[in-house]
Amino acid sequence: MAVIFELAVQGAQMLLVLLLAPLLIGFVRKVKARLVRRQGPLLIQPYRDLIRLMRKEVVLADNASWLFRVTPYLIFAATWVAAALVPTFAAGLQFSWTADLIVIVALLGSARFFQALAGMDVGTSFGGIGASREVMIASLAEPAMLLIVFSLALVAGATQLSTVAAFMGSPEVGLRVSLGMSLIALVMVAIAENARIPVDNPATHLELTMVHEAMILEYSGRHLAMIELATFLKLVLYVSLISCVFLPWGLAHAGAGPKALALGAAAYLVKLAVLAVLLAVFETAVAKMRVFRVPDFLGAALMLALLGTLLLFVSRSL
Amino acid sequence: MNGLTFDIAHLLAGSLVLVSFMMLYQDRLFALINVFALHAVVLALSVAWQAYIQDAHHLYITAAIALVFKAVVIPVGLHRIIQRLGIHRDIETAVGIGPTMLAGIGLVTLSMVLMLRVTPEADPLAREDLAFALSIILLGLLVMVTRRNAVSQVVGFMSLENGLVLAATGAKGMPLVVEISVAFSILIAFIVIGVFLFRIRERFDSVDVGALDDYRGERR
Amino acid sequence: MAAVVGRRAPATSLVYGAALAISAALLAIVAGHLADNPGVVSAVALPLGLPWTGARFRLDSLSAFFLVVVNLGGAVTSLYGLGYGRHESQPHRVLPFYPAFLAGMNLVVLADDAFSFLLSWEFMSLASWALVMAHHRDEANRRAGYIYLVMASFGTLALLLAFGLLAGPAGTYAFDAMRAAHPGLLAAGAVLALMLLGAGSKAGLVPLHAWLPLAHPAAPSHVSALMSGIMTKVAIYGFIRVVFDLLGEPAWWSGVVVLLIGGATAVLGILHALMEKDLKRLLAYSTIENIGVVFASLGLALAFKANAMPSAAALAFTAALFHVLNHSFFKSLLFFGAGAVLSATGERDMERLGGLIHRLPVTSFVFLVGCVSISALPPFNGFASEWLVFQAILQSPELPQWGLKVIVPAVGGMLALAAALAAACFVKAFGITFLGRARSTAVERAHEVDRWSLAAMAMLAVFCLLAGILPGFVIDSLSPVTLSLIGDRMPVQTAQPWLSIVPIAESRSSYNGLLVFVFITISASLAAFFIHRFASHALRRGPAWGCGFADAVPSAQYTAVSFAQPIRRVFGSFAFRARETVEMPAPGALEPARLKVDFHDVAWETFYQPITGAIDFATDRLNHLQFLTIRRYLTLVFLYLVILLLVLALWP
Question: Is B113 near chain C, with CB under 8 Å?
Fold first, then answer.
């Protein structure tokens, strides 16, 4: 019985991230629109977009290979699995020990690997430009992310996200400078990974600046829907990650009852909303940077993460 | 000492290091000065917190000096200078950001290792404060050696001085007179440098200190 | 005999078939030995070689593991060679040396005294040199062979000196005697440095890597696979055998040295690989990166061992050995794939390939598996071993030395950077070679390669997946090796629920490749099922969007060089002193604009050019010694003799 309940909670988490992902994007768009005094589309517009895309026919480039058609499903699957492994409203779920934080980072890396390959499959310059810039960004963002993982693991004693979240929620954790550095670095990496302003603009098809959009330019119909959904999921993943590590309040722990779970879910929704508003405000306030400023931006994130890890290594002997 | 007071002091001192890093990252003058103002605010907070936990009331005055002069007066003055010199669009290109930040990390590690090694028996708060203060001083020096523009060198110098103040407050028992005299000497240094800036500018039409080397017939 | 029959057609099948059979038999014997009685040592001394030592051979768990790597690689390569060897234009230049090369590697791993070790090492080097020179009419290959020969002799010299130091004044060359003798601090440091020079030059550590990207691609592709996938592992075996086994307790700074060299090798190797446009050279440079990863985790193991942290040392050591195994799988696979591309199109230059996924469907699929594995992406094997390395790094704050505390996280960052750059590099390798549109007519005539080659590649791809989703079995079978060299082992992994791996029992950090694989498969199939159930099925083919310009020429696609441009811009100025100059013609002028990129191989210019310069200078100056009179030659000999006698007389 307990096992069935646990499995049900795990399943609920998987479904929750899937269903919440378009809503979160819709919410961010709505807040951004309101901030510039526009009415903005409805909150449920992303769902409508997805359904509309599913209904449309797929226009495939003449020399697209099987890889091009398989990739959307692979990207979606890898991102979904990764997103479902991040604690949202409850930690220590049935399958949470399947993967630690390093694996989650690497799963996103797999998704990006295939996305970049799909960008190069058709053989247009757009795909190439997107793929080559994406791997450049990833080559800095991934090590930064891993160093952040190192910092968290050194503080919490494990790379397992549930353990980290439980530790961060306990009173043992102090206000550590290195954690602050990790948080800033994590936010910078999250911005870059989700192709948000100032690294990339999700709402533009301006040729010279686009990265993510350039890679998926040839996709249409149901394939595009899968990729879009994966993009939405990725944002949910990062927001959940930040909230479960740095705002662990209200997170239900292993073996919690329905009441704690409900509380956790409510707290999770509040955290999502707060972080989404912050993201929208930030995006409205800053301008997009040139592509070749991005290495500086991510290099700073990498250095911050490295500094945080170094400080932890050194100050462990205090 | 309970955990939270230590944590907050640690956090403030560490944020000062972080803001020093932000200074390394900036390549526009206005942004640099704004970050410097932030540096001074964090310093004032840190000093005030030290005053509170050490119950040393004269430190509040130090904090106030830092807040008034370094976070308001000097940045505003520098803004004015920059506008009058017309160099607010200048971009620093002396050394790339990546290598500078790497060097900065090296310096922070060096000062941490050094300070924690030479002071094994001091209390942890003072140890960490000293280590952070040394890092800030070294980072200020780094700003000074990696920038060409005289204004950014002034900012580097000021942030270096912030590190000194942090070290002094952490060390417990620095007389107020010394603090005030340090603050005033900095102010005077600021004025002198400001005057020099205008003189340099009058003579060379630029505040790039490279022009001085040219004048002496040298080039790095 | 092979030389005699080498010119006849059936010889190819005969030699490769025999090599396959022998390797498979050896593999079965060793695996059986490893499975039945782990930890049991069997030694044999043959009355050959040096009169007072004989030729000693010994099979312990370390050599058994490396024998598995060598013979598994040898067997699969021979299988591949059964098909690939038929394309060889001059089989008599390959066939005689191929079995000799395999035999040499086996003997190195088995040798139990310095004399037979060095002899087998030299035998292996010379056989591989002959294989590099198989296509000696090519000027570049001759240069590669020359540099390889010089570097190999240099490496052997360093090994010779190292063993001389280990043997000590007593001059006993048997490994048993060396194990019993504990050299002093200075001697141990010198041995470590000499091993880094000797074994490191064979493995390709920066800055001794210069020969590797020249020599490995010059050989026929299956031999490249052997050299890159297997021979570098034999070099690592030599390093482990001496530093972990013969040298006794390590000092903590030896870990620092090995860690730093490993980290630098990983980053520089993969950066060089990213800049390459020759597919086989790219793979050779990526070998350097993986060697760096292995050495970095060996350095960690040394540091832990020196500080009496056996469980962490066992973790780092297991990670190194696991990565050795994994790299032998995917690097052989990738070189086989490059060989398939080469035999199908005759091209190694990626700028002239493209679109091969339509022409070589099976090859491209297995090559993709290799790319995913080597890029350390779950659920394949490269990720499992890199994950273990990262877990080992997370154990290091407990180390007492300040130097290590600072260097280990920095090296961790370097390894993370190398892993991310490896993914970028293999997106490029696969994307430019197999995806897009054909950049030359050679591609349009390409056909899928023969069944033998495909079988060999498919086998390795399956190994990559299996080692990735069932890492617990590999880790457990490595435990006798760590027990014998470190004195501890990782916790038993196969007993974990659901076949997870949990490297450190207390921290409970876990990874389950099997479940990740199953989850991805399930959710991808679920998604596909829902889409095909509910979404539109309509599909139309049309031209790709080209901003209104239909049918852009294939040469307008992104090339290998342009793909790497952003990364070159970020890291190039620092790693290669790269400089770009753009020549724009004046407005109205008709000549094209030109982009020129200057590159410098910094290691080559700092370390090798001064040496070659000094040698040139010395030979110039000493040239006139060749034209002396007899009387003067006699004077020289006489003077030399007198000096020697003087030295003897003055020696305390």
Answer: yes
Task: Domain ranges for chain A, please list them.
Answer: 2-315
* Amino acid at the residue C93: R
Helix residue spans in C252-309 (DSSP H): 252-275, 279-306
Strands C42-46 and C579-583: unpaired
DSSP A146: H
CB C372 within 8 A of CB A110: yes
How many angstroms separate the CA atoms of A71 and A224, rounded?
11
Looking at chain C, which subunits does it touch, using at least 3 CB pairs closer than 8 Å as the criterion?
A: A, B
Q: How many residues does chain B have?
A: 220
- Whether the Cβ atoms of residue A107 and residue A81 lie closer than 8 Å to each other: yes
Within a 10 A sphere around the Cβ of B202, how many other Cβ atoms?
8
| C42 close to C59: Cβ distance less than 8 angstroms | yes
Residue of A nearest to C364 (CA): A67
Contact A295 C534 (CB under 8 A): no
Q: What is the block-wise mean pLDDT of chain C (652 residues), using blocks of 10 residues?
A: 49 84 86 73 77 81 91 93 85 88 92 91 93 88 92 93 85 83 86 93 90 91 92 94 88 92 94 92 95 95 92 93 95 95 90 90 95 93 93 86 85 93 95 91 88 94 94 89 86 80 77 91 92 87 81 82 89 80 84 83 84 90 82 87 90 76
Asked whether the beta carbons of residue B99 and residue C574 sit closer than 8 angstroms, the reply is yes
Residues in A touching C430 (Cβ below 8 Å): 117
Domain ranges in chain C are 1-248, 607-650
Reduce the secondary structure of chain B to three states and give it as a string. Answer: CCHHHHHHHHHHHHHHHHHHHHHHHCCEHHHHHHHHHHHHHHHHHHHHHHHHHHCCCHHHHHHHHHHHHHHHHHHHHHHHHHHHHCCCCCECCCCCHHHHHHHHHHHHHHHHHHHHHHCCCCCHHHHHHHHHHHHHHHHHHHHHHHCCEHHHHHHHHHHHHHHHHHHHHHCCCCCHHHHHHHHHHHHHHHHHHHHHHHHHHHHHCCCECHHHHHHCCCCC
Does residue A176 sit at the B interface (CB-CB below 8 Å)?
yes
10 Å Cβ neighbour count for B30? 15
Does B119 reach chain A within 8 Å, measured CB to CB?
no
Calpha distance A131→B128 (Å, rounded): 44
> How many other C-beta atoms are found inside a 10 Å radius of the C-beta of residue C441?
9
Task: Pick from B109, B112, B116 the residue to mutate for testing the C interface (most C CBs within 10 Å).
Answer: B109
Instruction: Please state the pTM of the whole predicted model.
Output: 0.91
| Predicted complex ipTM exceeds 0.90 | yes
Q: Amino acid letter at A6?
A: E
